[in-house]
UniProtKB/TrEMBL annotation:
Protein name from the UniProt record: NAD-dependent epimerase/dehydratase family protein
One Pfam assignment: Epimerase
Species lineage: Bacteria, Pseudomonadati, Pseudomonadota, Gammaproteobacteria, Pseudomonadales
Stretches assigned to the NAD-dependent epimerase/dehydratase domain: 33-252
SUPFAM superfamilies registered for this protein in UniProt: NAD(P)-binding Rossmann-fold domains
Cellular component GO terms held in the UniProt record: cytoplasm
Gene Ontology terms, MF aspect: aldehyde dehydrogenase (NAD+) activity
Length: 336
């Protein structure tokens, strides 16, 4: 038998160089955050920063991007126009991964599949390797089981749920073509420090201002909330887990709670709340487009939809979930 190539110093030298090059390529891979200035985008950016991973923050406003990410040496800034195909392609040029977190007002939910299609087309054209969509539980409709797994029927009975389902289907269909690898992470309602678009946002402000909190009820039904800073690390782990691709994943909160229980934690005494039920929402909706559009999603407050994320935990290992008591404390600390 001849000598093994491993004993050849020249071969060993070149293999070491190849391994070092591969490691460098991996660590310098750029992740594009589409919708970076939103709550989840900031959480993912923080997790990437902690890892030392370069990323491209993509948003519509240069001023907002600079305010949010301008002092971070790992962040590239890119302004895009989601109505312009050339602008989308330019924003994604040269990146390996896309995390899609674009939000639209409740009044514009018809745009979700439209924008998703444009970004997918641009990502494929620019040879992006993989894309992760941060989605919602709207795709399930009403819960048909005590705990909702990824295999729960997708039977949305609302317009918003159907549009989110169309969005997911586009992402998963793109994976089957082999042109781009994709996955979906679904979240329940979320909360956290400085989060403005949450069922609990006014609760924290009300406690700091010593007034009654305006909540949408009923507030005593079981519910769960994801603490936003916990989401980023999960997204980053999924990006680094090839077996996650081509699948959908649920992420739950730190257990079952209720708005009432969290209000008690926030006030530290019997809470002071003004609760708007479905009928009140209809009346207020005559003057507030958001509340008018929220009426069809009111079932999420009356019919508990609690997710089972055991599949995600088997995939990634233990997931850090901030206890509600600590999440409330941190949210109150920055409330105004």
């Amino acid at each position: 038998m001849g000598k093994s190539n491993e004993s050849n110093p020249i071969v060993r030298h070149h293999r070491i160089r190849i391994r070092k090059y591969a490691m460098t390529q991996k660590t310098t891979e750029i992740v594009a955050l589409v919708g970076a200035t939103g709550a989840i985008g900031k959480s993912v950016a923080a997790a990437l920063h902690q890892k030392g991973q370069p990323y491209r923050a993509i948003g519509r406003s240069r001023t907002t991007l600079e305010t949010t990410f301008g002092d971070n040496p790992l962040a590239e800034l890119a302004v895009w126009d989601p109505d312009d195909e050339a602008s989308i392609r330019k924003a994604l040029r040269g990146v390996a991964v896309v995390v899609y977190m674009v939000g639209v007002p409740y009044t514009d939910f018809h745009l979700h599949p439209i924008l998703m299609r444009r970004v997918l087309d641009a990502a494929i054209a620019e040879k992006v390797d993989r894309l992760l969509l941060v989605g919602t539980l709207y795709v399930f409709g009403r819960a048909q089981s005590t705990r909702v797994t990824e295999n729960h029927p997708k039977a949305p009975h609302t317009f918003k749920g159907r549009k989110r389902k169309e969005q997911e289907e586009l992402v998963l269909a793109a994976h089957t073509t082999g042109e781009i690898r994709t996955t979906v992470l679904r979240l329940p309602d979320f909360y956290g420090p400085g989060i403005e678009r949450s069922l609990l946002s006014d609760l924290f402000a009300a406690v700091k201002q010593n007034r009654k909190a305006k909540l949408i009820g009923p507030i005593d039904r079981p519910h769960e909330f994801v603490f936003v800073p916990d989401v980023g690390p999960v997204v980053v782990k999924l990006l680094d887990t090839p077996s996650a691709l081509g699948e959908t994943w649920n992420l739950g909160g730190a257990g079952v709670t209720s708005q009432l229980q969290l209000a008690r934690l926030a006030y530290g005494k019997p809470p002071r709340c003004v609760v708007a039920g479905k009928m009140m929402l209809r009346l207020l909706g005559l003057f507030d487009p958001f509340l008018r559009e929220f009426v069809e999603m009111h079932y999420l407050l009356t019919d508990p939809l609690i997710v089972d994320d055991s599949a995600l935990q088997r995939l990634l290992g233990p997931i850090t979930k901030t206890p509600y008591s600590e999440g409330v404390r941190q949210s109150l600390a920055v409330a105004e």
